[in-house]
Hints:
By secondary structure, the protein is mainly beta. The protein contains four helices and twelve strands; from the N terminus they run ββββαββαββαββββα. It has helices at residues 58-62, 91-95, 121-124, 177-180; strands spanning 6-7, 22-24, 44-49, 54-57, 67-75, 79-90, 106-111, 116-120, 130-135, 138-139, 149-151, 164-170.
Amino acid sequence: xxxxxxxxxxxxxxxxxxxxxxxxxxxxxxxxxxxxxxxxxxxxxxxxxxxxxxxxxxxxxxxxxxxxxxxxxxxxxxxxxxxxxxxxxxxxxxxxxxxxxxxxxxxxxxxxxxxxxxxxxxxxxxxxxxxxxxxxxxxxxxxxxxxxxxxxxxxxxxxxxxxxxxxxxxxxxxxxxxxxxxxxxxxxxxxxxxxx
Length: 196
Ligand SMILES: Nc1nc2c(c(=O)[nH]1)N[C@H]1C(S)=C(S)[C@@H](COP(=O)(O)O)O[C@H]1N2
Ligand SMILES: [Mo]
């Protein structure tokens, strides 16, 4: 598959492309199972667990500070896409609207369609993570997790939950879909944390 769809990165990009990754020429879509269809006006994001339960609507998200992001995207199936451009809400800005009852140690992300993935609190509550609703200046396409997905640029992209619908704040670690099925609980691409 070398050449047309994926290329070996130039050594000058060694600080951008993690070990064992090739550069995707396009930007593949990777979804396990069906692609949910949710209109923005029907989209809801719920928080619960170590937080006062609350439901956010599309307009609630739009009323939060909006930011632009340029981030690299690393899929564990060994392709990376550099300089992906997104627009959305920083996780840290979103969290100002959440009333935590106890300091969480872990979070479990829940998606429309049933997909889940887990993060530690410190991997979640980072300045460079965001809830994306635009990709390359267009509404986030359905296949990309529209209307809203999480993006966690510093970890393998299976952590970047598409069609996000819930954030569960936890004391104990609860593994998500791929993590239960043998993928690493953390997934740092620079450490090649692919499988556990
Ligand atoms: N809900 C949900 N989110 C998901 C997935 C999925 O199957 N379902 N796939 C993950 C994987 S393995 C990757 S690589 C990225 C792919 O995002 P993309 O389709 O925009 O490239 O989404 C992640 N988020
Ligand atoms: Mo992936």
